Amino acid sequence: MLEIRNLCVETDGKPILKGINLSVKAGEVHAIMGPNGSGKSTLAHVLSGRDGYEVTAGEVLYQGVDLLDRAPEERARDGVFLAFQYPVEIPGVSNVYLLKAALNAVRKQRGEEELDAMDFMAYVREKLKLVEMDESFLSRAVNQGFSGGEKKRNEILQMAVLEPRLAILDETDSGLDIDALRIVAGGVNSLRTPERSMILVTHYQRLLDYIVPDHVHVLANGQIVRSGGRELALELEEKGYSWINQAGAAGGEARP
Amino acid sequence: MSSDATDRFVNGFAEARTALPGGASDWVATLRQSGIDRFASLGMPTTRQESWKYTRLTALERRDFTLPVADVSAPGLEGCTLDGAHRMVFVNGRFSAELSDLDRLPEGARCVSLAAALEAGDPALQPAFTASADERDAFVALNTAYMGDGVLLELAEGCVLDAPLQLLFVAGTGQDYVSHLRNVIIAGAHSQATVVEAYVAPEGGTYFTNACTDLRLASGARIDHVRLQDEDESAFHIGRVRADTGRDAWYRSQVFSLGAQLGRADIDVRLASGAECHLDGLYLAGKRQHVDHQTRIDHAEPHATSSQLYKGILDGAARAVFSGTVHVRKDAQKTDAKQMNRNLLLSSRAEVDAKPQLEIYADDVKCAHGATVGQLDPMELFYLRSRGLDEHDARQLLIHAFANDLVDRVADENVRGFVYRALDSRLPGRDAKAEANA
User: Which of A87, A93, A106 has its CB closest to that of B388?
Assistant: First the structure.
């Protein structure tokens, strides 16, 4: 599904990612953990095609094809989805309008017919249930006036509607109270399928109590310094991130 | 101050007046004379005057405009008319009874062409035109001298207009003519109406519209006033609205300025005790178009409320001016006045001059103002693209969202749809998409 090879990325001339290697197979859930400033969010942004990053070395293959050359919308239509750490408020654009435009863009790419208003509403109502949102959210402007938890649920709603092949969840747990976290995690779990891959970028182990990953990687100073299974997250929970600096680059076994 | 254009209008008056409506009535003749005298002494505005600082009239002055000829063929009105509305249609500045529909007006509503009212020396009119000698606006003075047609709408006390009244001003064929339009709206106590002024040019052309609408709202009257200026890109449009409210009256103006080479739309409102006014405006300009909006709200008495939201979308090398003055007099305690002007620049060559002016002489008031000039937000664009919308569609969506905010505030559903359609065909970016698809 996704092959990241020796990915090096700079922003404003400063190296952020220094040779990331990661292989994600269909249906796998990978958690990428690390302290602040380790490059976690940069990795998520680069995969989704956000401006402001320069790839200085390496490559990213998505379904065997180079991903980095492609515009953000092309990636989205091909099934790459980024749930934003800070979902953007868009006054004047209703949630339902965006969902419909996005879904139809993706369906067109897949060679499917666009949904008409009735079919779309029936489709989206089902998806709303996954994140326990009521229909009033649809007519509101995208994320405007939403609470932190509502914004994150709205991201998962978009994911549910677009049915991506690869979902990257950037700090989707940050700022959530326990109830919101349960709802968000429940939504994500219901979207796990043998075909769909996910990358969870998170600072906290807490999320992984609810969404159990197949692999856990620790990112520090722009490199994956350790990879392991679920137990690695628990170890981090216990020891914190301070050991990383001592372990340094020597601890790096990058192969998941 | 004299210019060639001033001289042309002043010198042409003697000959033109005989053909202007109301020639038989002494007071009309006197009124027109006072208008031209006042215009002669004021002259065409220049950039040395504060309210014309950013708007040059050179392109307008260069042309020799004549009064429109009497017989013009009516262009097709498809798409210009408002469903379900009472309608008065003017072609090249002249009322066309044939194209109008006033059969369903309720009792208490009187709606006649201004030309007919002037011809008849209508007693309702005379009080609406006083104090021409003090007129400070040259275009209003010129309008008073030359006014050819328009509407006289009178609403009796308590009269409620069930459907909007559309005043449709259609530019017909012909070039270089000037229409001096004058609308007089007299709303009795607790009367209520929606009035939609629409200026359209289905066939294009270079012409000059000098339109002035005077409203007088008695106590408790409510007027919802939508003004759509959707003319040709080579047209000149100078629009004036003056509203004088009675106690507890409510006036809302929603201005949509979508076309014209040079467009100006001024609104002056005087608020009596407890009265309310809400002024919305949306202006679009591209290429080398120039739009200028100026509002002046006179909080003359206590407990009045005013709000203003003007938004502009500018592309190409367009230039926009917004100047909003809120004047709160010494006795106008408990005034609540808000003013906001937002501008979206889609090109580095577009320019905006935003000038909010608060003049507050009372001490117990709430007043707020602000102005912003910005571009499309890159994060919003990226967010939309990350959901599969291409860059062009994402930009269009954000531009629409910026504009729709104001259209959504139009209360009447039919009027809202009417404005949406006009706006949709004008928003920047459509051509680019069409070319890309070609």
Answer: A106
